[in-house]
Design a protein that fits this description.
The structure holds 2 protein chains of 2 kinds. Chain A contains 7 helices and 2 strands, in the order E-E-H-H-H-H-H-H-H. By secondary structure, chain A is mostly helical. In chain A, helix 2 crosses helix 3, helix 2 packs across helix 7 and helix 4 packs antiparallel against helix 5. The N and C termini of chain A lie far apart (55 Å). The chains are: A mainly alpha, B mainly alpha. At the A-B interface, helix 2, helix 5 and helix 7 of A face helix 2 and helix 3 of B.
Chain lengths: 251, 108
């Protein structure tokens, strides 16, 4: 394939504004940073414009914002209980950020920040550390009871503790890989199918008529991909709530 | 069609019942469930293998701890998948419980 037209090309990081190193770390402003900044700005204006002229009977923009808010609020309440209410701002911010990053990737020529595992892993690690700290502060040493389910026979306890610890430590990894894998897979599929259309048109009349089929598939996949983008923002939030629930209510 | 007050009350009652019903979470399509299982299988290995490798590096006991932690990682993956399976049977297929989180523990 010609240079710059590989399906993986869309995930390349390009430096927009080189910056001097900070403590030996590269802090260049890249297209990832740009996509994330844009996501934050979009989220801000989405909420801001929706809430500008508040009315008792919401107008369209306002009801979208309210639905989003109540959706996250219900997710938190159902999965982590009322005690988790103080953490609602964090959860809501997380949801909006991931949602905006995912949806930005659906705009042509835009970059999907969540397709890079370091971005999602940073989010997941922040969630993991935060949840662990909340559990430790709230329950103290009893928090480690999480690693030993009730009714474990003593002779198998060491094994169970190690397994539970590994399961606990694998949470941020599975959380981040899941989001990244879904984003990368969807965008790759779109690009590959789009590549079919182009090469079919280029290779003759009969094939260019048949190329309508992959083209129709792209339309379906794009809709599907938008669904995936919203769904995985939700899944990320949902799992954060579930982990928060574990830390708040030890069993 | 004119609604009598009784009709309206009945409708309101039905709406309220609908509101109080637990939201059915059918977010898990077959595809996302598959991705989820794969990820949950890989993630414990991605934690346990580096641990084993660095313990070996530290103690100079190649490859004992790597193998031990490989087994532990596989055991963890199986535990997690068993949990997903259990919660799927209990509540119908949903992607609610993450690893370590059981539906029944929440209700206790």
């Amino acid at each position: 394939m010609a240079d710059g037209h590989s399906p993986l090309d869309q995930f390349n990081i390009k430096v927009i504004q080189p910056l001097p190193e900070l403590f030996g770390y590269n802090i260049d402003f890249t297209n990832t940073s740009f996509a994330m900044v844009l996501a934050v700005i979009l989220a801000y204006f989405f909420l801001r414009i929706g809430m500008k002229n508040r009315t008792l009977v919401p107008h369209r923009m306002q009801s979208v914002v309210e639905v989003t808010y109540e959706f996250v609020s219900n997710t938190l309440k159902e999965n982590a209980g009322e005690e988790a209410r103080p953490y609602f701002p964090v959860i809501f911010t997380l949801f909006m950020f991931v949602l905006m990053c995912n949806l930005l990737g659906m705009i042509p020529y835009q970059f999907t920040a969540t397709s890079h595992i370091i971005v999602t892993f940073a989010l997941a690690a922040a969630v993991f550390l935060g949840v662990t700290l909340i559990g430790l502060v709230k329950h103290g040493i009893k928090f480690f009871g999480l690693f030993l389910p009730h009714g474990t026979p003593w002779w198998i306890a060491p094994l169970i503790i190690i397994i539970e610890l590994l399961a606990y430590l694998s949470r941020p990894i599975s959380l981040s890989i899941r989001l990244t894998a879904n984003m990368v897979a969807g965008h790759l599929l779109l690009k590959i199918v789009a590549g079919f259309v182009v090469s079919m048109i280029a290779s003759g009349i009969i094939l260019s008529i048949v190329s309508v089929i992959p083209f129709a598939l792209i339309v379906v996949l794009t809709g599907f991909e938008i669904g995936i983008a919203i769904l995985h923002a939700y899944v990320f939030t949902l799992l954060t709530c579930v982990y928060l629930n574990d830390a708040l209510h030890l069993h | 069609m004119v609604k009598t007050p009784e009709d309206i009350i009945r409708e309101a009652e039905a709406l309220r019942r609908k509101l109080n019903e637990p939201v059915e979470r059918k977010v898990a399509t077959g595809y996302s469930e598959a991705v989820r299982i794969i990820v949950e299988m890989i993630a414990p290995l991605m934690v346990s293998l580096p641990i084993g490798y660095y313990i070996d590096d530290w103690l100079g006991t190649k490859p004992i701890f790597l193998l031990v932690f490989l087994c532990l990682g596989i055991a963890t993956a199986m535990t997690i998948i068993k949990r997903i399976n259990d919660s799927a049977y209990k509540t119908g297929v949903d992607s609610n419980a993450g690893n370590g989180a059981e539906d029944d523990t929440k209700k206790e």
